[in-house]
Amino acid sequence: MRYTLLLLFLVLVITGCESDRFDKDKRQIITKDAIRSKLPARARNFDITAFSEDTLPVWTDTLVKRPIRYTLQFIYTDSTGALQNRTGYAIFTPDGKSLIASQIDNSSPQNQSNQ
Fold first, then answer.
1. Which has more confidence, 112 or 29?
2. What pTM did the predictor assign?
């Protein structure tokens, strides 16, 4: 009985600890799902080409200080069969637990670097 309680305690301690890596992975999945849900209904072959995370020093909402921004570059095939190259953004609260906003920039990433 004593060993069972000790084993149960150890299992709870080991599995109860979440790492920062787990939170980052969870935010990446949420970002991917949020951006994918904004694609046209007939979009196919969604594939992520680049992913980055940064902290915004300034945000439009004065109640949220230094939110986390995920930038997702991706490609997909539209309903006409044309390959589309886009960038999506997701903004999270500073603790990273809640999604504030997400959007897709409809200009291609190559055009953005030329401006």
1. 29
2. 0.71
